[in-house]
Design brief:
There is one protein chain. This protein is an all-beta fold. Helix content is about 0%, strand content about 50%. The chain is built from no helices and eleven strands.
Length: about 120
């Protein structure tokens, strides 16, 4: 049973930083893509960043240069470091895991089989 558990959300002032974590368990595949998505009230879920098992990363234009996705294979955990937060970053953030992704496919929510429960990031 695959389980993803996010943590690290909270309330932060504009310009501040947060680091989200997603701990994964219950799977054995070695090739995968791990993504971060977010959904603000009244808006569709959108891709924020993704990291493939080969180490390649992809980012939404809106977060490039501010957010960094990383992976700790030993801990089966991936992270989203968010710096220079803006009010428009306020949303529920979800981690997800699926098959291999590319620079064009990573934003497709349907390619991810497993999702976390979400963690809220709010501009204070």
């Amino acid at each position: 049973h695959v389980q993803l558990v996010e943590s690290g959300g909270g309330s932060v002032q504009a310009g501040g930083s947060l680091r989200l974590s997603c701990a994964a368990s219950g799977y054995t595949y070695s090739s995968y893509c791990m993504g971060w998505f977010r959904q603000a009230p009244g808006k569709e879920r959108e891709g924020v960043a993704a990291i493939d098992s080969d180490g390649s990363t992809s980012y939404a234009d809106s977060v490039k240069g501010r957010f960094t996705i990383s992976l700790d294979n030993a801990k089966n955990t991936w992270y989203l470091q968010m710096n220079s937060l803006k009010p428009e970053d306020t949303a529920m953030y979800y981690c997800a895991r699926g098959g291999r992704c590319t620079s064009t496919s990573w934003k497709a929510t349907e390619k991810y089989s497993y999702w976390g429960q979400g963690t809220q990031v709010t501009d204070s």
